[in-house]
Design a protein that fits this description.
The complex is a heterodimer of chains A (306) and B (163). With 306 residues, chain A is an alpha+beta fold. Chain A is built from 9 helices and 11 strands. In chain A, helix 2 (79-86) runs parallel beside helix 6 (251-257) and helix 4 (131-144) crosses helix 7 (264-284). The chains are: A alpha+beta (306), B mainly alpha (163).
Chain lengths: 306, 163
């Protein structure tokens, strides 16, 4: 090997070594960049998941440190609300018919007539806290207003801590009802906080104990609210329609919706009112005729033996 | 070494490889979520009469599942949960994790973000609008958040250059 060849070989080896070092440096740099990118991606992922967990924690902490839900106090009913509930047009009743009623009053037979003041009696027992009672009162007041007149109705809301919380409604507490055809006794046994409100008379208690129990309802539902006895002819125990339709609505909204036969509220409450009316007509011997023979009530023809 | 790594990893979309445990964990979570959603949907349409849950105190499944917030645009939330997990299962199958199309990865990530966003809304509704917690719903919420976490970290752990 000549000196020239040796020199060329040394140069080649030097070049190869330098290229190898450069390649190694490039690879190290790329690996460093990949590691950095991976750390950045992991940090972003951690931020995303951490944000979700922080939001969850904040929601829970705010809830735990917030003051407890307050019950809505019972007040005198607004005049426009009472006016609307008690004057639902006959055409609305007739258009709704059965509506979306899922649990109408159940007829019973062979029982002694339930009366008060010489007239057939409708007995209601419920509680202001009770969301199902809240739903039923709209229907009951609408129906009873076809036979008589209410005074001093109250406006209330169901319990904020029960199902269907804060369902806006009326209350029979402190109210009165007059009719030539029937008597009505509305007992709100407990207030919105489930504290005792009205005491049942011995007669009311006896009726409630007998009929809000098997075989008229399940043993699980014994003594449950609402309980409505239509003259010992038919019993309404529990809600007759889905209270969900009332969720988030004010008393004014609900009262207005009762006049709209296409509203979900009217289909539930006015449909129920037609069923209640049919049961009451069976108590009054189909009086008044214009009410008892109306198409909306006829939807329940024969169900209650009227 | 690279071959060995590839042998233990599922191929994620856009040429990324995710740790081998990711497809299995996400699939198990999605199937578990679907199972609970089926149960809640069944209970929704049968009046929640057999819902195995306390109905007293803060824990009250019945109150939550019958609340106004139990429907969104008229669709029961339980059904939305069912649809969500039905959609997530194919996105979490090993074959989907190996799918090289970026669309699949994006769909999986977007779905998990939508899911966790909905969970936060439902948690807010339970705590502040309904005032009660539904245990079965909470199980679904935990699964959804876990699914979101795994999908997000899987994306972070995968190496774009490890093709």
């Amino acid at each position: 090997m000549g000196i020239r060849q040796l020199g060329e070989r040394l140069i080649t080896v030097a070049k190869t070594k330098r290229e190898a070092r450069l390649a190694a440096a490039r690879e190290a740099l790329a690996a460093q960049r990949r590691a950095e990118a991976r750390r950045k991606r992991l940090r972003n992922a951690g931020i995303a998941v951490g944000t979700v967990l922080v939001v969850v924690a904040v929601l829970v902490v705010v809830k735990l440190t917030a003051s407890p839900a307050k019950s809505t106090p019972t007040t005198s009913a607004a005049a426009d609300v009472v006016q609307k509930v008690t004057t639902v047009p006959a055409a609305t009743f007739d258009t709704v018919g059965k509506g979306t009623v899922s649990n109408p009053p159940v007829p019973i037979s062979g029982q002694p007539a339930l009366t008060a003041d010489g007239k057939p009696l409708v007995l209601y027992v419920g509680g202001e806290f009770c969301p199902y009672c809240a739903a039923e009162r709209w229907a009951l007041v609408s129906a009873l207003s076809r036979f008589g007149t209410f005074a001093n109705l109250k406006q209330a809301a169901s319990s904020p801590t029960d199902v269907f919380p804060n369902t806006q409604t009326l209350s029979f507490f402190g109210s009165s009802y007059t009719s030539d055809l029937i008597s009505f006794q509305g007992v709100e046994a407990e207030d919105v906080d489930q504290k005792p409100l009205q005491q049942l008379t011995p007669e009311q208690q006896a009726n409630f104990t007998k009929y809000d129990a098997p075989p008229y309802t399940s043993s699980d539902a014994r003594g449950s609210f609402p309980f409505v006895n239509f003259g010992n002819i038919a019993l309404q125990i529990g809600a007759s329609y889905d209270p969900t339709v009332l969720a988030g609505k004010s008393g004014t909204d609900i009262a207005a919706a009762l006049h709209d036969p296409n509203s979900a509220i009217a289909k539930g409450a006015i449909g129920s009112a037609n069923a209640f009316t049919a049961a009451i007509c069976a108590m009054t011997g189909n009086k008044p005729a214009d009410v008892c023979n109306s198409p909306g009530v006829a939807a329940y023809a024969g169900k209650y033996g009227g | 070494m690279a071959e060995a790594v590839r042998g233990r990893a599922a191929r994620a979309p856009a040429g990324r490889a995710v740790p081998a445990w990711v497809p299995a964990v996400t699939l198990v979570l999605a199937v578990a979520g679907l199972a609970v959603s089926i149960y809640l949907t069944y209970e929704h349409f049968t009046g929640s009469t057999t819902l195995a849950c306390s109905d007293n105190g803060v824990i009250n499944c019945l109150k939550v599942t019958t609340s106004a917030q139990s429907k969104v645009l008229g669709i029961p939330v339980a059904v939305l949960g069912l649809v969500y997990f039905v959609a997530m299962i194919p996105l979490c199958l090993p074959v989907a994790w190996r799918d090289p199309r970026p669309l699949v990865a994006r769909a999986r990530l977007v779905a998990s973000v939508v899911g966790v966003g909905f969970v936060l809304y439902l948690l807010y509704a339970e705590l502040f609008e309904i005032g009660n917690i539904c245990l079965w719903c909470t199980v679904v919420h935990v699964i959804t958040v876990a699914l979101f976490g795994v999908i997000v970290f899987a994306g972070a752990l995968s190496d774009p250059d490890d093709v």
